Amino acid sequence: MANKFYSVVVKDVEKTTDECSVVSFELSDEVKSDFRFRQGQYLTLRAKINGEDVRRSYSLCSSPVDDQWKVAIKKIDGGKFSTFANDVLKKGDVLEVMPPNGRFFVEVDSAKAKNYVAFAAGSGITPILSIIKTHLTLEPESTFQLFYVNRSVSTIILKEEIEGLKNRFLDRLEIFHFLTQEQRSTPLFNGRLDEEKMETIYNRLIDVESIDDYFICGPTDMIFMIRDFLQDRGIDSKKIHFELFNTNGSKNATKKKKREIDTSILSQITVREGGKDFNFTIPRGSDNILDAALNNNADLPFACKGGVCCTCRAKLIEGQVEMEVNYALEKDEVEAGYILTCQSVPVSEKVVVDFEA
Ligand code: FES
Predict the structure, then answer these.
(1) Are 259 and 336 in contact (CB under 8 A)?
(2) pLDDT tens digits, residue range 159-171?
(3) Which of 305, 323, 329, 333 is the best mutation target for the ligand 1 pocket, counting ligand atoms within 8 Å of the beta carbon and taking the most?
(4) Which domain holds residue 33?
């Protein structure tokens, strides 16, 4: 069942650079069908680390054509889960894993010849790798161009896999490496992607008219710069797909609205989940529905708590909420009343949300 954790055995933990491990999972035949995935989707992992329940989502870097479930976890400074995965986790351990989720993909159509472009930076390569492999394997006439930014060659986290794909799809996959801390002979390939580089790429390296879809994954600011650049040049936003890993530290994402909190007025919240109603009250405007419910010992699905992953989605049945940020719901979902409970603060006297609607 989606949004529930399964206990899954770690098949292997393989170091690919000093700072990155690829974790693969051993799935029993009974659960394999619940873990079927699309290229570009992610797994949410959960572990007790120093007594704390820590959850993180990581994109699958394997492809559905592999019949393998692998995530690459890059160690980040102060990162609880990433440090645990790189320093402690080992083959044979059991992790709590939620079935694949996410919408960072387009349909595979083996009868069509499509041209795709991807922009990635650092560990943003993980879903892109899965997407490239899947489309080029299942669509024999399609092509991919990848523009990929890293600090240096030694920090490229899935270098062997990328090179393997390049060799396998020699005339259908083109890769342009950009390095920020190592000099390359062509100035274009030195430094991160910015508007000037995008101008050159757009005018000289891609055949804009022939591109069917663009995929972007990396730091939030890079994603929005490229998205805006493409949209400003008239590219249909339906062709631009992006995946945010997390929104920590992003100035775009942390702009929270200032709210009036009146502790003398209470909001009565009802959460429907697992066929049951769970009721509690909070001071109006004081907290989002998810955190307030978890503080009241409810067991609800969540992963990023940053408005990115959509795991905490529910339907607003009654009342009003203010949603702080939303990187996950489509416009039509919002219009249909869906909310991200990790971002939704009740502002009416009564609020009813249904996680199963
Ligand atoms: S938990 Fe990820 S969007 Fe709410």
Answers:
(1) no
(2) 999 999 999 999 9
(3) 305
(4) 6-101
CA 144 to CA 118: how far, in whole Å? 7
Whether 72 and 120 share a structural domain: no
Rounded Cα gap, residues 220 and 298, in angstroms: 31
| pLDDT score for 258 | 59
> Of 76, 101, 126, which one is at a domain's C-terminal end?
101
Which long-range contacts does 246-249 make (Cβ < 8 Å, 24+ apart)? 246/304, 246/306, 246/308, 247/220, 247/304, 247/306, 247/307, 247/308, 247/325, 247/327, 248/306
Q: In terms of Cα–Cα distance, which of 102, 123, 82, 75 is closest to 308?
A: 102
φ, ψ of residue 333 in degrees (nearest 5):
-70, -45
Q: What residue ranges line ligand 1, CB within 6 angstroms? A: 302-305, 307-312, 328, 340, 342
Structure tokens at 275: 């066929």
Task: Please indicate, yes or no, whether the overall pTM of this predicted structure exceeds 0.70.
Answer: yes
